[in-house]
Design goal:
This protein is α/β, with parallel strands linked by helices and about 270 residues long. It has nine helices and eight strands. Bound molecules: zinc ion (2 copies).
Length: about 270
């Protein structure tokens, strides 16, 4: 393929997790979204996950028809979580295009905030998601046992997503048993992650989601470049092959799941 490697156009896709507020996407949001539409991406969930980006996330969503927002505090920033941030988060949940709380969770790979602080911020945001009946978006890296432990006994009436899933099939089954949807990023396409591919193969059709986590983790064959929502088409094509289904069918099924879970409207024509 040529330098640009345009993704295959697969109509009906939803990118359930990306960060549009990074350059170069943020410098040309209209172009980024037009390229996504050309690849078949009908709707995008932009995640604002630091105290200083949550307000902008809501603004980005309200300015772009096909963009929705999730707001929360990332485990990296858990040390900045306090009652003031929590009150702002709760207020933002009332904005019309905010569809989920997150990403929150535990990241013991980078440990950018102390682990006890991460657990506390996760517990508080999970309680908020439960009380406000919004889906919870989780980022879990090298911390699945502890994340499941923190959430034990928390009733999440609107469910949730383990985003950018990096565990194996057994780990996926634990989250499925807990009622979560499992979302796969470009990592599933990496040759050194066969266990993630195996997890993507066994997740039931009605619990499967696709995402880019742009600007990170561009899938094969554009790995190593700045990722954008259009590339969810590459991940869809890869996961469809894994599951021996047609990319168009998988796009439709995963988009239906996203709409049902996140309450997205049917996309505008
Ligand atoms: Zn994440
Ligand atoms: Zn993310």
């Amino acid at each position: 393929m040529g330098r640009s490697d345009p993704p295959p156009a697969i109509p009906g896709l939803v990118d359930t997790h990306c960060h549009l507020d990074y350059p170069p996407m943020s410098d040309d949001l209209d172009g980024t979204l037009a390229a996504a539409r050309a690849a078949g991406v009908e709707q995008v969930v932009h995640v604002g996950c630091a105290p200083d980006t949550i307000d902008r996330a809501v603004a980005i969503a309200s300015a772009h028809r096909d963009v929705f927002a999730a707001v929360g505090v990332h485990p990296h920033d858990a040390r900045d979580y306090d009652e003031h941030v929590e009150a702002r988060l709760e207020a933002l949940l009332d904005a019309p295009k905010v569809v989920a709380l997150g990403e929150t969770g535990l990241d013991y790979h980078y440990d950018r905030s102390p682990r006890a602080t991460q657990r506390d911020a996760l517990a508080r945001q999970a309680a908020l998601a439960a009380r406000r009946r919004v889906p919870l978006v989780l980022h879990v890296r090298d911390a699945h046992d502890d994340a499941l432990d923190v959430l034990a006994g928390v009733d999440l009436p609107a469910g949730g997503i383990v985003h950018c899933f990096t565990g194996d099939a057994a780990c996926a089954r634990r989250w499925l048993d807990r009622g979560f949807h499992v979302s796969f990023s470009g990592i599933v396409t990496f040759p050194k992650a066969p266990e993630v591919a195996e997890a993507a193969r066994i997740v039931p059709t009605d619990r499967l989601l696709l995402e880019t986590d742009a600007p990170y983790l561009a899938p094969v064959p554009v790995r190593g470049r700045r990722n954008t929502p259009a590339n969810v088409a590459h991940t869809c094509a890869f996961v469809a092959r894994l599951r021996t289904t047609a990319p168009e069918v998988l796009a439709h099924e995963t988009a239906q799941n996203a709409r049902r879970l996140l309450g997205l409207p049917r996309p505008a024509a």
